[in-house]
Each structure stands twice: as structure tokens, then as C-alpha cells.
Design a protein that fits this description.
Number of helices: 3
Helix content: 25-40%
Distance between the termini: 36 Å
InterPro entries: F420H2_quin_Rdtase, Split_barrel_FMN-bd
Shape: globular
Protein name: Nitroreductase family deazaflavin-dependent oxidoreductase
Organism: Nocardia thailandica
Strand content: 35-45%
Number of strands: 7
């Protein structure tokens, strides 16, 4: 796992609320798999053909990833738009790097990120 999960807990309680309030980050809205509560998670959302790709800085065991995989969908607020996303699936680094546009900065190898989440934009 690239980043320790304890740092994710700090982010969730300290930095994420500030990022959401700033309105400058893409925000993923998802439902808790056990609680049924609605959660808002600021993320880097990289547009790819037919959807979005998310870098899994904490790996696929992060709560938000598990919630999205269990629900099979989420909503993304990006660039002032709300998009429905479906068909979440975890991709390996090689597959993700092939679909990322060249203009997107790759995560530093130092972080050892090996998983990405791909979601398709739902047809409206």
C-alpha cells in the first residue's frame, strides 16, 4: 500500500473538509456500504475516454473505494457539473498508464501506486 491508512484518516477529518469547502477539487459523492450515509470525497479525477480515472493513493482498501465498488455507482462534481458514474473497476498501473492522456502527470514512482479506479460516465 503506497500511503499509510492512518494518513487517510487525517486527510478525511482535517484536509478533505477544507478541500470540499474550497470548491476547487472534483468531489465524488458515494454511499456508505454499511451505514447508508452519503459521503463526499475530494479526489483527482482524470478524464479518460468514456469516463474518469482515479489514482488510488491509499489502495483499493480505502473506505471510499470499497463504498463505490459495493454500490456500483457514484456521482462526480467536476468543473461545475454533476456526472453519474457507473461500472467501477480497479485497474493495475500498466493498464491505467495506457489510458491516461499524456498531459496528465504520472504519480511519482516513489509512492509505489499500483492501483487505479476506472468509472464510466453514465448515459444521460
Amino acid at each position: 500500500m503506497p500511503m499509510p491508512l492512518w494518513w487517510g484518516h487525517v486527510n478525511k477529518r482535517v484536509f478533505n473538509p477544507r478541500a470540499i469547502a474550497s470548491g476547487t477539487w472534483p468531489v465524488l459523492t458515494h454511499v456508505g456500504r454499511s451505514s447508508g450515509r452519503t459521503f463526499y470525497t475530494p479526489l483527482d479525477a482524470h478524464p479518460v475516454d468514456g469516463g474518469y480515472l482515479f489514482v488510488l493513493v491509499y489502495g483499493s482498501r480505502a473506505d471510499w473505494v470499497r463504498n463505490v465498488l459495493a454500490a456500483g455507482s457514484a456521482r462526480l462534481r467536476v468543473d461545475g457539473r454533476e456526472l453519474d458514474l457507473t461500472a467501477p473497476r480497479v485497474l493495475g498501473a500498466d493498464e491505467a498508464r495506457r489510458i491516461l492522456p499524456p498531459s496528465v502527470a504520472r504519480p511519482p514512482r516513489l509512492l509505489r501506486i499500483s492501483e487505479f479506479l476506472r468509472m464510466d460516465t453514465a448515459r444521460q
